[in-house]
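Lab notes, practical 5.
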Amino acid sequence: MTDRTGSEPPATGVKGPEELRREIERTRSELGDTVEELAGKMDVKGRARARAADLRDKAGAMTVQLRSTAAQAGHTVHDRATQAGHTVHDRATQAGHTVHDRATQAGHKVHDTATRTGHRVHDRTLQAGHTTQDKVTQTQSALERKTERNVPMPARPLVMAAVRHPRPVLIIGAAVAAVVVVSWRYPKK
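Output from the prediction step:
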């Protein structure tokens, strides 16, 4: 049962009726407390319910804590994913600008090279045209001199006109040749 601990000195000798009643009352009270303790220890169902309620409370607290931890982890993952997305976007933008700049530089180089090549071709073509024109002029002068010396007088003006303006003469000559070929190929019957 319970130990006697109190401020009363141990009883020695004879006790009076009032003192005995108090001692009986105190003993009954102590006995009642002891019986309640024993009954509480013997009430397995009640203790199980109390334990279950305690475990439910702990489980609820753990659920709240887990939800809080999961939400915090979700926010952390979201923040990191957002940061990674921004990093990827920034790098892609930077790479795009680099590619654009390099393409622009390459385009300028190609344009400059094409312009220089075009100028060279133009200059060479112009030079070849002048050279050809000079040769044509020399040849025309030589033909005019030979025509004046070697072609008889009645045909000389016609030949001189052909030498000075060859295009109409070539057209007329082609037409005359076509007439000759057609008349030879299809004679009249």
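Observations recorded by the TA: The radius of gyration is 64 Å. Residues 44-150 form the longest helix (107 residues).
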